[in-house]
Amino acid sequence: MTVAIHFRLARRGARVVRTQVGIVGAGPAGLLLSHLLQLRGIDSVVLEIRSRDYVEQRVRAGVLEQGTVDTLVASGVGERLLREGMVHHGIELRFGGARHRIAFERLVPGRAITVYGQQEVVKDLIEALLKAGREVLFEVSDVTIRGADTARPQIGFTHRGRGLELDCDFVAGCDGFHGVSRDAIPPGVLRYFEKEYPFAWLGVLARVAPSSQELIYSSTDRGFALHSMRTPQVCRFYLQVRAREDIANWPDERVWSELKARLETVPGFTLATGPVLEKGVAAVRSFVAEPMQYGRLYLAGDAAHIVPPTGAKGLNLAVNDVRVLTEALSAWYRGGDTSLLEAYSATCLRRVWRAQHFSWWMTALMHRFDDYDEFDLRLQRSYQEYVARSEAAATSLAENYVGLSLS
Ligand code: APR
Ligand code: PHB
Prior knowledge:
The chain has 407 residues and is α/β, with parallel strands linked by helices. It contains twelve helices and 21 strands.
């Protein structure tokens, strides 16, 4: 019996609904997990507190590693991504009044990144899931996970005013940093590793053609700025601002004049401007919860780890987690093999920590820290020059940026 039929039963009055994997959260992690499981014949139900419209419009990062693109394409949700995604073979670092290109084609031959907005990935996944008859329940509330350490964990929730219960073999906590899954694990089980940074990122989406063919990471005395893009007509920009900065302090004119001041730092470069479509401030933090599992509750994506956005690794880590989890759950459903499930946390954490280091390193390389003295600033400039001049240092940046194969 399919899950869709179960929910039809629930609508007729049943309060407890059975599925194999209950998934909390319809971000990239939860949606992709449901999609990959469905391809293996494993039932799942996705529960999301927000509306479909909200998750499809939420602007996030947009850099996909090759491995992420391969996973999406191989699972049949890559058609629009291949058509509309912008393949980039390098990035530019800008500092000291000069441009320094990190040339992927020379440093890491055959590997590239694809620029494609995270909410586009989300739209493609929702469409594929609904077409396949999967249950993705939006606007649920009161989500609680019980019995994570038993063989039959349950997720209680409210949907359209009715209290319901999902009876599962496994629960996947894909509900992001502010979700409830981590808190369903008893105190003392998880160890947290955290770093707060003394600044935030102000993100801006604007209707304007890119002023550069590739992403520009610019380090200036005024702070960091990033020129990214979404389509040939829409760009994404970021500015380093004070931690917990109020967006009200950043009218559009100020955003543009600051972006110009931080990006027009090399001869001959002019930043084109246009109408601002969206803007907001996001915290910059590093966070890891270990282990990424308790009993039959598996954490994936931002629920388990956050990286500073400088290396654009967040979405790629989420995709890797659910790829590993899908393999592990498939092995269990095929013949009761628990070894991959037992290895889940350690397998994911190897990539998580590599990405943590890289994101922290790139953040330190490019940002202005208030407490830096002249000595620190000289060290930072020396390291920037080393990355620009040394083939070995540039290769290290490039191979981390396009994504290392670790599992
Ligand atoms: N119940 C159900 N859903 C919830 C709950 C809850 N209690 N709390 C949060 N959610 C939902 C959020 O509304 C969101 O849609 O879980 C989803 C989590 O999605 P993301 O935050 O996008 O996290 P994830 O899927 O792990 O994707 C990681 O997203 O934050 C970016 O930079 C990050 O690119 C990375 C990617
Ligand atoms: C983005 O396009 O949103 C983006 C690009 C690169 C980053 C972070 C975000 O490092």
